[in-house]
Amino acid sequence: MDGKKLAQEIRTQLKDEVAQNGLVPRLAVILVGDDPASQVYVRNKQRAAEKIGIKTVDHHLPATVGQEALLDLIYQYNEDPNIHGILVQLPLPDSIDEAKITHAISPQKDVDGFHPINLGHLFMNKPYSLPCTPRGIMELLAHYKINPSGKDVVIVGRSNIVGRPMAALMLNADATVTVTHSRTRNLAQKTRQADILIVATGQAQMLDASYIKEGAVVVDVGVNRLEDGSLVGDVDFESMLGKAAYLTPVPGGVGPMTIAMLMKQTVEFAQRG
Ligand SMILES: NC(=O)C1=CN([C@@H]2O[C@H](COP(=O)(O)OP(=O)(O)OC[C@H]3O[C@@H](n4cnc5c(N)ncnc54)[C@H](OP(=O)(O)O)[C@@H]3O)[C@@H](O)[C@H]2O)C=CC1
Ligand SMILES: Nc1nc(=O)c2c([nH]1)NC[C@@H]1CN(c3ccc(C(=O)N[C@@H](CCC(=O)O)C(=O)O)cc3)C=[N+]21
Question: Interface pTM (ipTM) of the complex?
Fold first, then answer.
């Protein structure tokens, strides 16, 4: 499944929409420290935003920044009518309380959909803002005419940013959902049941073909930087290639879709005014 191509199509549509409606969407992005996956994200995001006509205000703060200073920055953007979306890159350094930061962002400006209010709306199948990666995965599947309704969906990973919201979206789409994690026993036995397998562990190339059944749809969320500088996912792409019916590459799969959804949500927020 070619996420890069679909993301490009979505970005072109957004560009037209922004131009036609005379919008100037503005997104504030805050990165603390230097998590490698976050750095990839920030770079690609800036590029995409610029082409669409979305203005980004970027803050790269040192890992030593105090929690109060970070909160003050968020409050400032909450009040600023010219800013439509606020995104704080996760993970944050251990010295900062991630939950407190997520709570501080106004739910109306929460382009990541991580605020408890927005997660609650999602869980109750009345979403306001959606986490970008799971939303991007749903769009990618829809594009390839893969309907999760009634399917056995297995998710590996239960993080707040991928696994949990993914489970909620899949449940809303009428899938039968299994969420697995590091304490799961007999992981391969569970993943082999999957019609659709979504992997977000952060463990480079952890799952090979022995973890799937013939004809499964495999979505690889992982973005891992190897020592030689190359980027790989959480599944062994080569191994799965002959056995999966559909497979997302890394790079070029879920990553670009995440960015496209972030752009889409920012434009949606700007349109809501
Ligand atoms: N392409 C994109 O747009 C995005 C990519 N990413 C990438 O996706 C990956 C996952 O990110 P994220 O969800 O934030 O990661 P986290 O580290 O927050 O969560 C990883 C999850 O995987 C589980 N896990 C770890 N090891 C194993 C194992 N051996 N067996 C089973 N489960 C395991 C953990 O279990 P437990 O809860 O028990 O610890 C945890 O639930 C990373 O590579 C990240 O860079 C993330 C966001 C967006
Ligand atoms: N608040 C928050 N929201 C996030 O959504 C979030 C986050 N924090 N922290 C970090 C992770 C990681 N993440 C990525 C998104 C896109 C690519 C991406 O564009 N990947 C390209 C890489 C291409 C390249 O540059 O080589 C691809 O896979 O093709 C990577 C990683 C979002 N995350």
Answer: 0.98
Question: How confident is the model over 150-192, as pLDDT tens digits?
Answer: 999 999 999 999 999 999 999 999 999 999 999 999 999 999 9
**Token pair of 170, please?**
């899949």
Query: Kind and range of the H or E element at 168?
Result: helix 163-172
Give the mutation target among 88, 190, 223, 234 for probing the ligand 1 site: most ligand atoms within 8 A of CB. Answer: 223
In this chain, the answer to whether the domains covering 22-108 and 132-255 adopt an identical fold is yes
Residue spans of the domains in the chain: they are 22-108, 132-255
Domain 132-255 in CATH 3.40.50.720? The answer is yes
Distance CA 123, CA 111 (A): 17
Q: What CATH class does 22-108 carry? A: alpha beta
Q: Read off the pTM.
A: 0.97
Q: Best mutation site among 5, 38, 43 for ligand 2, i.e. most ligand atoms within 8 A of its Cβ?
A: 38
